[in-house]
Amino acid sequence: MNTADVIVIGGGTGGYSTALRAAALGLDVVLVERDKVGGTCLHRGCIPSKAMLHAAELVDGIAEARERWGVKATLDTVDWAALVATRDDIVARNHRGVEAHLAHAGVRVVRGGARLTGPRSVRVAGVPDGGGDFSARRGIVLATGSRPRTLPGLEPDGRRVVTSDDALFAPGLPASVLVLGGGAIGVEYASFHRSMGAEVTLVEAAERIVPLEDADVGRHLTRGLKKRGVDVRTGARLLDAEVLDDGVRARVRTDRGEIRTVQAERLLVAVGRVPVTDGLDLAAAGLAADGRGFVVPADWDRLETAVPGVHVVGDLLPPPSPGLAHASFAEGLLVAETLAGVGTAPVDYAAVPRVTYSSPQTAAVGLTEAEARARGHDVAVDTMPLTAVAKGMVHGQGGMVKVVAEAGDGRVLGVHLVGPHVSEMIAESQLIVGWDAQPSDVARHVHPHPTLSEAVGEAFLTLAGRGLHQQ
Ligand SMILES: Cc1cc2nc3c(=O)[nH]c(=O)nc-3n(C[C@H](O)[C@H](O)[C@H](O)COP(=O)(O)OP(=O)(O)OC[C@H]3O[C@@H](n4cnc5c(N)ncnc54)[C@H](O)[C@@H]3O)c2cc1C
Predict the structure, then answer these.
(1) Fold for domain 161-271?
(2) 104 is catalytic
(3) Cβ contacts of residue 84 below 8 Å, gap of 6+?
(4) Is the model's pTM score more than 0.90?
(5) Whose CA is nearest to atom 38 of ligand 1?
(6) How far is the CA of 37 from the centre of ligand 1 (A)?
(7) pLDDT tens digits for 4-42?
(8) 28-37, pLDDT tens digit by residue?
């Protein structure tokens, strides 16, 4: 039997970050991956989708150049194959980078499917380059991630009814898309396809899209998408969908109870993700998934299950772990340091930022106004349109900054942004929320002029009673 200090099952962002940090701390690490290291984020999620959204931004820029700036540019065509080639090159280079990091760190990567055979042992099958039985001296880390949720009666066929995985590998760009699900993934794909010229209908059952975000974020995002021509239908339900030769015909019940027929070349099902534990045999280690398929830690401070030495990271964790790659990095660091005996702070889930990379983008950290009030906080709120600062006018895309704080210059509880490039603006707010800063602390610091981030600075100035452009 092969032995190691730590065996990590799953080489996505959660698993490979655990492995890298554990190896850096001097532990002997085996990382088992049945597909490609990098996992969902690198191969089917964050990176390819953001590469495509970058191309979409360029397309939008052509229209803006023509319509606002007198730059007489026209869009000839989008060469999907070329776009895919650039996207895949970025993914491939990142993939090689992760493999090189792991090799350099001395992590032994074993390619194959892992099955637990006990609380400290694993069998790897289907292995081209040597598998077999492994045992762990210190612990096992479960990092098997998630896959797209599907709905009964709406099974993806990869062609007409597709998941976010299939959308990447489609043969071309559709002329029309019906997107089911107004969470981050659904909104990003709706935004991408609209930029590429498709007729897009976005159907969300909840009252608003990105329903976990602040109500004002949902409103601004809806307005922004509608302005761009996306048919956003909230409080709406897909009743059924019929697959045709050239597309899908779906019946949607609107929020007013009317039945509408939507025909589109493609139906993209983006109704969430489910944890992956198939073939893992949790029971062999004395574990079980909960009713939703998650593996729940008994100790969230160490992300350790009820079986000592078995830890869990990434999308396999239930909320408050948010199912985001950057959260899984933090979880990987925590678990590796715990296994190495290095004292380390638990993940501060309240300060993990959340971003939707659509056009417009949303970025937020901390509590929404409704959550803050529901928790009994006496709340002070400032909302500032991005167009109140000069750079916001230059961009001309609207947007807003909303800060939620305890009244009377108390702690900042949440920061919510909508608009262009706000994904790059949220980092200061995660420190503000994470470090329990007060508006007056932030108001002491000067933001560069002219930038969009000035609007964040202004909102804090206003809450601190020192508003300059906003009284
Ligand atoms: C379209 C899309 C866009 C996204 N965009 C973002 C974004 O912009 N920002 C962000 O933070 N997050 C984003 N996410 C979410 C992010 O991808 C996930 O949170 C992250 O990938 C979770 O990492 P993980 O390590 O838990 O799991 P995964 O990345 O799913 O990795 C799990 C790995 O385990 C392997 N595995 C499973 N079972 C076994 C087994 N028995 N034996 C061996 N190997 C096994 C799998 O092959 C896989 O490689 C996006 C997701 C999607 C789908």
Answers:
(1) FAD/NAD(P)-binding domain (3.50.50)
(2) no
(3) none
(4) yes
(5) 144
(6) 10
(7) 999 999 999 999 999 999 999 999 999 999 999 999 999
(8) 999 999 999 9
